[in-house]
Amino acid sequence: MQNRKIVVTSALPYANGDIHIGHLVEYIQTDFWVRFQKMRGNECVYVCADDTHGTPIMIRARKEGITPEELIARSREQHVKDFTDFQIKFDNYYTTNSPENKELSEQIYKAAEEKGYITRKTTPQLYCEKCKMFLPDRFVKGICPKCGAPDQYGDSCDKCGATYGAEELGSPKCTTCNEKPVVKDSEHLYYELEPQHEYLEKWIPDHTTSDVSNKLLEWFKEPLRGWCISRDAPYFGFEIPGCKDKYFYVWVDAPIGYIASLKNAGKFEMWNDPNVELYHFIGKDIIRFHCLFWPGMLNAAGFKGPTKVFVHGFLTVNGEKMSKSKGTFVSARTYLDNLPPEALRYYYAAKLGGTTDDMGLNLSDFVQRVNSDLVGKITNIASRGGQMLQKKLGGMLGAMDDEGRALVQKCIDAGETIAKHYEDRKFNQAVVEICRLADAANEYFDKREPWKTIKVDEEATRITLTAALNAFRIMAIYLKPILPVYADKAMKLFGETQWDWASACAVRENCALGEYEYLASRIDIKQVEAMVEAAKAKPGETGEVSHESRASKNKGAPAQVAECAPLKGEIQFADFEKLDLRVGVVESCEVVPKSSKLLKIVLDVGALGKRTIFSGIRGAYPKPEMLVGKEVVFVANLAPRKMSVGVSEGMILFAGEPGVNGGAVTIDGVAGGGTQAT
Question: Are the beta carbons of 100 and 263 closer than 8 angstroms?
Answer without folding.
Answer: yes
